[in-house]
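Troubleshooting log. The previous run stalled partway through. Resubmitting the same two chains, unchanged.
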Amino acid sequence: MPDVRSAIEQRLAAAFDAVHAGANPVLRPSDRADLQANGALPLAKVLGRSPAEIARSVVEELDIADLCDEVEVSGNGFINLTLSTGYLAVRLGDLAGDPRLGIEAVATPETIVVDYSAPNVAKEMHVGHLRTTVIGDALARMLTFLGHDVRRENHIGDWGTPFGMLIEHLVDLGEEEGASELSAGDLTGFYQQARASFESDDGFADRSRRRVVLLQSGDDETFRLWRVLVAGSVRYFDTVYSKLGVQLTDDDIVGESYYNDMLAGVVEELEAKGLLVVHDGAKCVFPPGFANRNGDPLPLIVQKSDGGYGYASTDLAAIRHRVLDLGAKRMLYVVGAPQTQHFQMCFAVAAMAGWLTDEAQAIHVSFGNVLGADGRMVASRAGGTITLVGLLDEAVDRAREAIAGRRSADPNNETGSDDDQIATMVGIGAVKYSDLSTDRGRDYVFDWDRMLAFEGNTGPYLQYAYARIRSIFRRGEVSVPAPAAPVLRDPHERALAIALLWLPVALDDTLATYSPHKLCSYLFEVASTFTSFYENCRVLVDDEAQRTSRLILCDLSARVLSLGLSLLGIEVPERM
RNA sequence: GCCCCAGUAGCUCAGCGGAUAGAGCACCGGCCUCCGGAGCCGGUUGCGCAGGUUCGAGUCCUGCCUGGGGCGCCA
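Second attempt completed without errors. Output:
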């Protein structure tokens, strides 16, 4: 069954079509009614009639009485629609019995690659990895829920010249020692020591350079050592992902090295297609429309003058592989905004090569930086740079303090043995929500106090709204009623009904631009609307019919919040 | 120098070419014998600047200003 907005839009489209073939109803939310159709206004010029007159013609053609109680044309030509309360109630009844809460699985599932997180082997994960990991995971969850065949791909940095020095450092440390250092998370120490040796010790530097050659030529022993490095780092990444609560696993790791065997083929194919130009000894493709600082055409270098391959060739190989071998219809690259031009060039070249088409699209889901309250980098409580793990631990600590503080001030609090779990959900949820709730294109300000506030558009507020609803059932000692259509008598009930029915619409809008903040805004709206309802409509009343009806609204509110947050990768506690 | 992104209330942010630009925080004023006051109701303050397109521009186009980022063998 189509969502409410689509149902209305279909009827409107038919009526507009009768007045002017193919006319768009331009359906929008309204502050004058529930919805408004603005489509008559742009038709005025085309048809040479006044907008209001056209709107009246549309309304005459409109068959919508079962969905709307009121349809009104304003003097300006807006068509204001008031949804039928009976219709809303019936739809809510359907929702009550639907575990998917009105979100239908897509008719034609697509294979969609979501490329996100991408930390580097033997390098610490830092705040810079937060957004790609959190946003990518949220998008992957939403697309999966819609029924798509989602391939999470963690394009880790597991190849390149630094591995010569890293392997030699591993040799010097001893494999066991080195591996445990890596998996325990002392990646910064490992990397910096390797770097220090490389810079201060000529012998070490020579060995490192030879080791790079050995690695690239496929030397067995070198390869084995390389795998030790990678495996140790991956174990560490897993602990971070587990802490963050993202769904990436070892199976999702498809590092740069995975594409090594395909690079020569990519270059050959580009050459065969006549796209290659040798420039200063490097094999290049010049996609049109890109210029350097002198105004000369800017190349994408697919093979360096020394014969080596850079990241452009790896990215091209990944596109080709994902399209031709995996059958990907969409590829989402959840990577920061600074790489916009790189991806534009890669996508342009991939299109020239025929890998990217209308049937197989690559999308750069870019995002801005994370800034501290001072507009600069994020610093820890003690000051100084902060690792991702440190940040997450601090979030949980702060959440624990915040919850304890609230508890001691609230005589009605419910304590329990799972306070650590709650602090984890709230702390991690706060970090993720603050990231997801800002338009990904913008830089956003990382502010502990704001993200952990229990008021406003925050994770804790939404979790609290959920926990509070659950407590109604606990304290009232009532169970969730059997699915049925509620009675919507109070305006607050009606407003809540509309909000609850809007979940599929919010998800559609969110995925249309891969913007999780839209889902966040929606959930905040649901929570606010619920609170207003709860303030104005007593739930645990004696009248059984009314109590049941309102309990259904409560339960649906909790479920919408829970499902919505789970699609963002945020857990909800039963109590706080 | 060229390219990309951003500039909306004191602060943090929404805003799909449509009517009077919205939230939260902060501030001010109300509401408690109330199922969790972590609340509810109301009030104050704004689209960087200048042109243009349009019946209609925060939204699209051009120029400028400010901030951030990028610009050939790193990823």
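Takeaways: The first helix of chain A runs from residue 4 to 19. The first strand of chain A starts at residue 27 and ends at 29.
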